[in-house]
Design the sequence.
């Protein structure tokens, strides 16, 4: 009980000093809890949606998949006779056929795409009774004929659609127009999909290019009949041949959820990874806080020891303080996490993914995880300072000798740090010289961890030399004030090292990702310049190119040729007997000019001959295939062909790596016309001297199809740069949390350092140092510490990034590009971070009463 009282008294006596550490814990816990609440809420939203849209039992084509985009653009379907048979099953209350397709684009009268900008699909289909489970008509009526359509209310609100407006639907079977006669609202949250309904006959004709066919059959169970029983009865009614996929409501919802779940897991674990980085940075802040508090309470600890407190009790007293800090910070963090989740939901809603706070999901495990992490991390971080507190000698403390410096421990620490850093450097070298990217990536991970830990441990040793160099460049010009700032930064190398290490971690990751991102752009740009001969590239974000858009492109004036590029699923069997499911690329012979692929054997143009194909060098080496050998290719939806290997392409590239080419004529010989896929991408070459005119004409020709982008090589390079830049900016935004925690560490270190040097500050003020000079001294000290951390972090990050690029070179990204403007900007920005972190400590130091400061013990 005495230990608890002492801890409580010390905690509240130093509550101001604990505040920043509590904020660090709060931010880290909030990010973890916010991530969990946000992803759980998204899962809840999708769960409710899929449960509401799934009937009791659903009958689908055998090959249908929830996330499957048909290669020919037409969804798999079943004949109307299946609906008739299903109706006869025992326990069926009602049955209806449904049509649904996600391979469509809907545009308004201004030719603007009505689809989502967040990646959510545009869904077109027929209006059925099953839709009443999730939708209700709030305006107008359901479509009754070929010229009528109904849209969801979210899409109508977003694009200002109203009854009577005309929509054009672009499908693989052609374009058709319809006027809006109804608007339906979701009863559950719509995550952002755009939904358009037609009458059944129109949906069958325009989406499936057939009559009397459905993409699925919805069945409602009679009262007292379970979904499982109905599934069994329906399967029997359909002759039990296994020609169809029969699913209960739960099975259908689970399959729909599976694809979304993979995407959500990527988001969840990526965000938790950044939260982990913030926790790691927070550890240094907490260690520094308690180390300085222990040092400042040396005499108090000595008195406690002198009156009978054991080492264990002193140790326990510090750990109880840490426990209180962890509890307070974690509880506030859990609450803030819910706020962060709501903020993320609002942000996503603003971007087009609608998420309702009515679905806000806070599982009982979320606060438990947040509290456990926050408390455990805080207590573990405080363990070393607590252990040092327990070692304080009563007599040394009473003489105000402070915590004894352990030179031997510092030497051992330095040696361990150097050994780990050396081992990490060797691992990075081994990764950079690896023969296979997969093997090298594991070694790279080990090298990153070892060098990071090594730099953290060896930081106090590096602080002396690095701080002196930085000070010689920046501080000497400020005379005695600059020299005092330098000495203050060098006074406690362990503290400076720990404070700088917190900033080092975040900046190392920034530098590493900057090098990798810049190298990817430079490599891809070089590869495009070297390999791409086409003048123009046309493709969509997710959809294949519909035939009518292909015709518009081919009819565009000023083009020397247009190249089709179709990917079709197939099973490849090598001469050694091994088989694998893969894709082959069928293209026009002009593709050999549009993409100048290097070959290790044969000529790529020969692969576009009769019953011929090419293979990538990696596949050929793995299976011992050489030019002249025969491959067995079983086309999906078509026949099995024996194709001669006419060329082996070099896989030392980032474009079309591993692609297997054959001619369109060869594919058409073995695949029926109904199964031939739409183009994934198309290329074009302008007539000589007509590049500018052909580009303008091609853009005009493709205007009716806004889902596709027309780019020349300059556009393509810029978009690649923009995409990588956007990804890096998002990552930098997440890393900002770690930087913020690191800044709090600098603020806390300076604030506690000012308290620790109260008497010293009073004395130097008494002998003539002005308030302005004092504030400048503290700001300079902060800048030096920040630049120390930045220098270590940027150097370490560039080492990681360079090694990562060497591994990526094995995948065709051969150019190392150091983004010096970014590196320099981050380094200079770190100086401003130091200045910002010193504002409050410097202001408080300047306001100190000189006489009171001198009288402080």
Sequence:
């Amino acid at each position: 009980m005495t230990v608890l009282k002492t801890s409580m008294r010390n905690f509240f006596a130093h509550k101001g000093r604990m505040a920043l550490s509590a904020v660090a814990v709060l931010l880290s816990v909030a990010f973890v809890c916010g991530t969990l609440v946000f992803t759980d809420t998204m899962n809840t939203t999708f769960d409710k949606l899929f449960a509401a849209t799934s009937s009791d039992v659903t009958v689908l084509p055998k090959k249908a998949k929830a996330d499957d985009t048909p290669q020919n653009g037409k969804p798999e379907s079943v004949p109307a006779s299946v609906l008739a048979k299903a109706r006869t099953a025992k326990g069926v209350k009602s049955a209806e056929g449904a049509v649904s397709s996600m391979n469509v684009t809907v545009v308004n009268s201004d030719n603007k795409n009505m689809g989502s900008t967040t990646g959510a699909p545009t869904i077109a289909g027929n209006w059925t009774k099953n839709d009443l489970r999730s939708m209700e008509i709030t305006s107008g009526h359901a479509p009754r004929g070929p010229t009528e359509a109904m849209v969801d209310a979210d899409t109508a609100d977003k694009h200002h659609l109203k009854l009577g407006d005309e929509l054009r639907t672009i499908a693989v079977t052609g374009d058709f127009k319809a006027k809006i006669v109804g608007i339906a609202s979701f009863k559950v949250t719509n995550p952002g999909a755009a939904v358009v309904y037609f009458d059944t006959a129109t949906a069958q004709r325009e989406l499936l290019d057939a009559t009397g066919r459905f993409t699925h059959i919805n069945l409602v169970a009679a009262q007292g009949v379970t979904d499982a029983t109905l599934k069994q009865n329906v399967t029997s009614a359909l002759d039990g041949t296994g020609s169809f996929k029969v699913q209960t409501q739960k099975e259908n919802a689970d399959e729909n959820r599976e694809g979304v779940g993979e995407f959500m897991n990527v988001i969840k674990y990526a965000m938790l990874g950044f939260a982990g980085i913030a926790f790691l940075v927070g550890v240094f802040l907490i260690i520094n806080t308690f180390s300085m508090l222990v040092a400042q309470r040396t005499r108090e600890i000595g008195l406690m020891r002198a009156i009978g407190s054991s080492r264990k009790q002193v140790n326990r007293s510090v750990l109880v303080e840490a426990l209180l800090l962890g509890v307070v910070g974690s509880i506030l963090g859990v609450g803030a996490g819910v706020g962060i989740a709501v903020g993320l939901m609002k942000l996503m809603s603003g971007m087009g993914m609608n998420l309702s706070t009515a679905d806000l999901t806070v599982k009982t495990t979320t606060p438990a995880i947040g509290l456990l992490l926050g408390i455990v991390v805080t207590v573990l971080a405080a363990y070393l300072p607590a252990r040092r507190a327990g070692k304080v000698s009563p007599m040394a403390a009473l003489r105000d000798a402070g915590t004894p410096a352990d030179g031997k421990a510092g030497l051992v620490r330095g040696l361990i740090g150097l050994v780990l850093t050396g081992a990490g450097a060797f691992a990075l070298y081994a990764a950079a010289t690896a023969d296979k990217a997969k093997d090298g990536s594991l070694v790279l991970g080990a090298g990153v961890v070892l060098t990071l830990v090594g730099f953290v441990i060896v930081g106090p040793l590096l602080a002396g030399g690095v701080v002196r160099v930085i000070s010689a460049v920046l501080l000497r010009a400020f005379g005695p004030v600059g020299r005092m700032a330098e000495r203050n930064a060098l006074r406690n190398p362990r503290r400076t090292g720990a404070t700088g290490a917190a900033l080092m971690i975040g900046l190392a990751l920034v530098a590493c990702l900057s090098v990798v991102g810049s190298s990817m752009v430079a490599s891809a740009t070089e590869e495009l310049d070297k390999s791409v001969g086409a003048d123009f590239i046309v493709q969509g974000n997710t959809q294949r190119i519909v035939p009518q858009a292909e015709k518009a492109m081919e009819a565009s004036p000023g083009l020397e040729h247009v190249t089709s590029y179709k990917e079709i699923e197939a099973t490849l069997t090598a001469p050694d007997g091994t088989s694998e499911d893969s894709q082959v690329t069928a293209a026009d012979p002009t593709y050999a000019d549009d993409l100048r692929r290097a070959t290790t054997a044969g000529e790529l143009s020969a692969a576009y001959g009769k019953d011929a194909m090419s293979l990538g060098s990696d596949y050929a080496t793995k299976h011992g295939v050489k030019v002249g050998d025969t491959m067995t290719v079983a086309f999906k939806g078509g026949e099995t062909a024996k194709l001669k290997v006419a060329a082996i392409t070099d896989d030392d590239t980032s474009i079309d790596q591993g692609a297997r080419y054959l001619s369109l004529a060869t594919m058409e010989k073995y695949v029926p016309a109904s199964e031939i896929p739409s183009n994934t991408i198309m290329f074009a070459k302008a007539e000589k001297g007509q590049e500018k005119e052909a580009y303008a004409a091609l853009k005009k020709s493709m205007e009716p199809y806004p889902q596709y982008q027309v780019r020349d090589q300059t556009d393509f390079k810029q978009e690649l740069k923009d995409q990588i830049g956007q990804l890096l900016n998002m990552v930098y935004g997440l890393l900002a949390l770690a930087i913020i925690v690191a800044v709090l560490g600098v603020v806390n270190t300076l604030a506690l350092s000012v308290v620790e040097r109260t008497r010293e500050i009073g004395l130097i003020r008494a002998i003539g140092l002005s308030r302005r000079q004092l504030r400048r001294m503290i700001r300079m000290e902060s800048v030096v510490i920040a630049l120390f951390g930045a220098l270590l972090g940027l150097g370490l990050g560039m080492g990681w990034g360079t090694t990562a690029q060497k591994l990526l070179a094995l995948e065709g990204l051969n150019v190392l590009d150091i983004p010096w403007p970014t590196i320099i900007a981050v380094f200079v920005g770190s100086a401003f971070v130091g200045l910002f972190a010193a504002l409050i400590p410097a202001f408080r130091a300047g306001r100190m009463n000189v006489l009171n400061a001198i009288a402080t013990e």
